[in-house]
Design brief:
Structural class: alpha/beta
CATH topology: Rossmann fold
Number of helices: 8
Bound molecules: NADPH dihydro-nicotinamide-adenine-dinucleotide phosphate, 2-hydroxyethylsulfonic acid
CATH superfamily: NAD(P)-binding Rossmann-like Domain
Largest sheet: 7 strands, parallel
Oligomer: single chain
Order of helices and strands: EHEHEHEHEHEHHHEEE
Radius of gyration: 17 Å
Helix content: 40-55%
Distance between the termini: 44 Å
Strand content: 15-25%
Strand order of the largest sheet: 3-2-1-4-5-6-7
CATH class: Alpha Beta
Number of domains: 1
Shape: globular
Length: 250
Amino acid sequence: MIAFITGATAGIGKATASLFAKNGYDIIITGRRQDRLDAVSAELSKAYNIKVLALHFDVRNLPEVVNAIRSIPDEWKQINVLVNNAGLAVGLNNIQEGVVDDWERMIDTNIKGLLYMTRNIAPIMISNGFGHIINIGSIAGKEVYANGNVYCATKHAVDALNKGMRIDLLPHNIKVTAINPGMVDTEFSVVRFKGDDERAKSVYKGMQPLKAEDIAETIYWVASRPAHVNINDIIIMPAVQANSTTTIRK
Ligand code: NDP
Ligand code: 8X3
């Protein structure tokens, strides 16, 4: 069994790669940070005695995506699961003061990157006659919160693409699932606040967020349902978070 996980150098992607590896999957992992990719690759192949194929590319760069996927050896092409996880929020500004470069990074990564990956992996799955694409959306793809404008728009796009690709891939025996988390304590907020650790920590202050492993377990559960079962869509929240804007803090 083979699982392909984008953005496996940190957070949810790394925890997901680790759980699939623990369950005996060979894994294809991606990310832009080569040193992290090498470290995850070495750690998981040693810990779980599985094979790892590490592909170093930026999901925003279509030629890089195409070349990386073309480089996959034939013995790695029986891909059972693609987890479209690579993504980010950059900035938290109102629309009138938004930073256009932040908008472009989010749109290019969360929407176009997910599309580039899907466009290049789905034909391989179709030719195999099986597959499962798991898209990582967000509660931000179900609701909108103040200053979340463009990040929320990108995750609403993931919500729509998830539904659309499920229809298009249905005749090809390819399952499509979205996992939509609330707050998860990863590098997400450090990235959103451009390295401001204190501001990132304040996001989770006084409350217990989800861990990356909580999402990994959900992804693995979805992927391990019987062949006749598909989980279309899951929203998973910390117990103390009711929605994007209502959280109990001590
Ligand atoms: P992290 O910042 O911890 O991890 C993000 C991963 O995405 C990294 O491995 C990073 O790798 C990769 N990535 C980012 N941009 C690119 C790119 N252009 N090309 C390739 N890889 C990229 O965040 P999370 O684990 O929290 O985020 C994972 C997903 O979960 C995202 O889609 C996010 O929107 C979503 N999510 C997160 C929530 C949270 O509260 N944390 C809640 C809901 C959804 P590298 O930098 O090496 O390229
Ligand atoms: C990440 C969670 O609350 O910042 O998607 O939108 S949130």
